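Regression test attached.
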Amino acid sequence: MDDKLLIASRVAQELKPGTLVNLGIGLPTLVAGLVPADAHIFFQSENGIIGMQSMPEHGLEDDDLTDAGGRPISALPGAATFDSAMSFGLIRGGHLDVTVLGGLQVDRNGRLANWMVPGKMVPGMGGAMDLVTGARRVIVAMTHTAKGEHKIVDACTLPLTSSRCVDLVVTELAVLQPTPEGMVLKELAPGVSVAQVQAATGTPLIVPDHVPTMGAAA
Amino acid sequence: MSKTITVTDAVSRIPDGAVLMIGGFMGVGSPHRLIDEIVRQGKKGLTVIANDTARPGVAIGKLISARLVSKVIASHIGTNPETQAQMIAGELEVELSPQGTLAERVRAGGFGLGAVVTPTGVGTVVADGKRTIDIDGKAFLLEMPLRADFALVNARQADHIGNLAYALTARNFNPLIAMAADVVLAEPQEIVPVGVIPPDAVMTPSVVVTHIIAKESARG
């Protein structure tokens, strides 16, 4: 299975029926297509909608109905639209059950850096700081390393997105849970060893006696 | 007295160096005719307060491409390489504000509140130079309200006295900025008689709208 699809499929298993979920741009967006339609998960897009679903049929796009990347979407029956203050009230006010975001670095305790690389890339934080600060549960969906560089580290060298620690990290190699004591290895991707994950990780892993295969425990 | 004026007249009232709040999210819900007219009239040294600067040549991106903007207050500029290039070259000052904080700063400016007190940004570079306040053992950042000389609002409908309704995700920052500027220019997609927008459906009451931008006849 493609790495990104593997990560997105595992994240999809974390989403519970009837919950409100916000997906970041890029890899997390794939998750929407992997949850069963009868799960009745409400997807929020922070530009102002709950109940978005994927692209309308070509030729049926509405210029005034888009996702946070400006791409055309459609709205499910029961959808709601609102202004940006309401959208972030939902996010910051504890009404958002889960946010799934990409990451540049995550430290051993779960602090996330995902919005800038000083001197190289300053896109702005957009909604990321509010999402990580306010969502009830934060899941980071990212590749385990970047061009051989560790992304899961002892301490982030990049500017933090929030002082709040994330709840779960899903990569193509493993599922990890940051804790005050350090990064716990929860699941291994099919065919991946503990040693492989440790070699790709820049902080000592806490490894339980039994580590199930990714997804099998769900 | 009619509030309706032409887009040319409306933009002629904006001086160089004005502070503008502009609606839209990646150009969706931006007042495109007002933006095009600002470019045509070549207003300079503008401060733009908006969620983002869209893409080069799109919506607010047109103002950036035409080098009419000297300062941007936004949550995201990553989709417009020209904004980043002008920032790196020192030609454009950029203040980044988390999106929810930006929305609340605009709201505070329009709603008469003295500050925004938010947990977002605590412990990050966003907190640099700002006061962190402890409330019942939890840390919050003190963020300042924003106001503007002009708000450039896109609406789905305006009635003849300026009540506004917005469309789907084109709403975004529009109803917020309509409260936070000295002069509010509303560019509706459609102008309808009073009463067509039912009171429950009015999202911005007419009293805050200074001018409605006249429709241009599709027949030329």
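Expected vs. actual: identical. The radius of gyration of chain A is 17 Å.
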